[in-house]
Amino acid sequence: MSTIPKIVILGAGYGGILTAQRLQKELNYNEADVTLVNRHDYHYFTTHLHMPAAGTDSIDRTRVPISKLIDEFKIDLVKSSVREIRLSDRKVILDDGTLSFDYLVIALGGEPESFGIPGLAEHAFKIRSINSVRLIRQHIEYQFAMYKTDESRKDRLNIVVGGAGFSGIEFVAELADRVPRLCKEYDVDRKLVHIYNVEAAPTALPGFDPELVDYAMELLAKKGVDFRLGTPIKECTKEGVVLASGETLHAATVVWTGGIRGNRIVEAAGFETARGRVKVDEYLRAPGLENVFIIGDNSLMFNEEGRPYPPTAQIAMQQGVICAKNVVAAIRGGQPRQFVFNHKGTVASLGRGQAIAVVGDKKMKGWSAAQMKKLVDLRYLFIIGGIPLVLRKGRIF
Ligand code: FAD
Ligand code: NAD
Q1: Does ligand 2 come within 6 angstroms of the Cβ of 257?
Q2: CB of 107 closer than 6 angstroms to any ligand 1 atom
Q3: Is 170 a catalytic residue?
Q4: CA 48 from chain center: how many Å?
Q5: Are 383 and 371 in contact (CB under 8 A)?
Q6: What is the pLDDT of residues 337-349, one digit of tens each?
Q7: Residue located nearest, by CA, to atom 4 of ligand 2
Q8: Distance 190 CA to ligand 1 centre (A)
């Protein structure tokens, strides 16, 4: 008697949701049992988190119930946290149970990388999840409210963002839009508020197109962002941050956007990892394991020049599609498909009505790039939820 193979997908982010949806489409009735495990019963748009973090958009527009994205007659959704992956036993240990698998897809996403900088874990906020950004927004509002009860604590009005990569830049841009509104609401003089963006490299967005970087920095500086470039944060304390230059920035709010790493659960499973990411083969399989697939921020793949692809939603989504095909091929004894990344471009928002973008060999900035950002976001909503999701969550105007 043959048994139905069990497929377990860990994580319902960009990679996990795409894998689940494609499996649901490609598998025949009773061909496999598919289980999707996620810490929350909603899928959130990590690529939007900088907005609710700054308070320029709502939490509601940044997430969607997973039940609206999958067919629960075809996929079991388990809302739980993964604690441990036991490869040799083919088991996954959850907070409240154990799952066994024949095929495993690991898509748990990354974690903030703090490079061992003292104090960051304890004192800095991170833009990682719905819960973490809700905390940032509320903390900033609380600091403004507290300032009005004791105006000697000027540091309550200072915000330090550590790292001027894409996450840092997109976040300070939203903050620059939000601060004037906060000042009005809390009767605070705008001149007393400081938004610092500290970057270790000599420029913001290191490695990105220099003309667009200049455009972004000029725009943000005009909106009141104070850049500290070429000087890493070397310590974070209750009072703020200490820079390698010797300067101390006093701030009641420190948000760390200094980089991400892979996942510690994946590291603990015994894979060989580079900063928590597993170098997968061209079929997205873990080294030496034909039944374990690793995608998104947990995986490491290299371009033709031997440089690692940066961890993005774009690559996670494309991997999800191929991963589903390869799981189905494995079950049916077919040929797996090679994953080839199709880099469609990079678009970074700079707050309301502003963005920068490189799409193919075309550079864009300002309003046209902001429209491109909207299109990218709408396209994603369409891919995972069709027109109904575009209408419910999309920012059309
Ligand atoms: P995620 O999307 O992070 O999904 C992981 C899922 O696993 C989550 O649902 C999480 O809740 C769940 N999970 C984690 N741990 C557990 C556990 N132990 N148990 C159960 N469930 C768990 N990339 C772009 O391409 N374009 C952008 O514009 C862009 N903007 C970004 C803006 C910000 C502010 C940030 C932080 C990142 C941005 N990125 C962007 C990067 C992109 O978001 C990530 O590369 C992408 O989310 C990775 O997808 P993933 O599927 O690997 O993981
Ligand atoms: P990142 O690694 O891209 O940038 C982190 C920045 O922090 C770097 O510029 C680094 O030099 C700086 N840094 C590191 N240590 C520091 C220190 N001690 N002090 C000061 N600065 C320090 O991380 P990210 O911006 O979170 O991006 C993570 C991934 O998500 C990347 O792959 C990125 O491409 C992607 N992403 C894409 C978009 C987009 O396409 N719009 C937006 C956000 C994130």
Answers
A1: yes
A2: yes
A3: yes
A4: 8
A5: no
A6: 999 999 999 999 9
A7: 165
A8: 34
